[in-house]
Amino acid sequence: MKFNTQMRSVNAAAPRQYEGGDMRLHRWLSSLFAALALVAGAASPGRAEPVTIRFGWAVVPATIVPLLVERKDLATHLGSSYNIELTHFQGSPTLMTALGAHQIDIVTLAFSSFALAVVNGGMTDLRIIGGEAEDGAPGYNSNEFMVAKDSPIKTIEDLKGKVLATNVFGSAVDIAMRALLRKHGLENKRDYTIIEVNFPNMRAMLADHRVDLISAVEPFSMDPGLRANARTLFTERDAMGTSLLAFWVAHPDFLQKNRAAVLDFMEDFLRGVRWYLDPANHAKAVAEVARFLKQPPARFAWAFTKNDQYRSPDGVPNLAALQSNIDLQRATGFLNGKVDVQSHADLGLMAEAAKRLH
């Protein structure tokens, strides 16, 4: 059985254009392949084509789906009932936009963008269908906000007049940073400046003193070069306790139309989560993350341990924490309406997938 996965980026280059003889050859080949496809379809009546699930993600290993699609031993239904088209985004605000335009079927959102999607984006039908990464859960790691090791900044109040780096305006780390600074009497634009910087470029910006504080999330926060030259001023846990940074969201019409395929996908996902969390598989799991991110395995020894963010082996998001995150988002002025998390929760498919593995 052949299976197919695709990976693309929101900044992917346009496909090559055919001209002249190339165009005629392209059309002839397209006609031939179309005819062959019709013959193949006629030869196997009643066989349903796999459903293509367009999955949007931002960071590995906060989400393991980009790793999972390469593991046919874990993704046992891949290529049979479903295929995956992966699209990478810089942050959850752009994921939210793609979901609203129905360019993506399932996305990993953070608390901040989910609330904005519901309140500002009018996507009141969104459903929370599963969870991946929780920041600041008791006994687990939390995102860090770091300054240069030789910086004179010692307290949050010392950030007055400084330049701070965030990945995307409105992202989870952005909201956490602004919320904690607000608690200390500091307001954006009045007391400090925020600029957007891609996570991979944060270290260089701090080292070159072009910014005074960076948002450091895994795996970038674990970079030995960063840790040798920077120190943590505060964490996301300091700002808001446990926060949900990666949970699955989808429109209900897609779920209803493709229930069987989504259920198979969730089963494969949970099989993968449990494999990656198993200490017996740690060395192999780290090697996969390192290969995907093109970095030495030694840099990812923390992955899938308590030095990492928390993951539920049943894919269950902490809805109480999510409600608290969104309430804080509203209380600090970053949200103009209420969101009842329970009314958006639809965890039945994930629960059914978990039962399959028991």
Structure description:
It is built from 14 helices and eleven strands. It has helices at 20-43, 65-68, 92-100, 111-119, 172-183, 202-207, 224-229, 236-240, 252-257, 259-277, 282-293, 319-331, 341-344, 348-356, and strands at residues 5-9, 51-57, 82-88, 106-109, 127-135, 144-148, 163-166, 193-196, 214-216, 230-235, 243-250. The strands form three sheets. Strands 1-3-2-4-11-5 form a six-stranded mixed β-sheet. Strands 9-6-10 form a three-stranded antiparallel β-sheet. A two-stranded parallel sheet has the order 7-8. α2 (65-68) links the parallel β2 and β3 (82-88). α3 runs parallel beside α4 (111-119). The protein is globular, with a radius of gyration of 22 Å.
Describe the structure concisely.
This protein has helices at residues 20-43, 65-68, 92-100, 111-119, 172-183, 202-207, 224-229, 236-240, 252-257, 259-277, 282-293, 319-331, 341-344, 348-356, and strands at 5-9, 51-57, 82-88, 106-109, 127-135, 144-148, 163-166, 193-196, 214-216, 230-235, 243-250. Helices cover 39% and strands 17% of the residues.
Which tags fit this structure?
about 350 residues; alpha/beta; D-Maltodextrin-Binding Protein, domain 2; 2 domains; 6-stranded mixed β-sheet; 3-stranded antiparallel β-sheet; 14 helices; globular
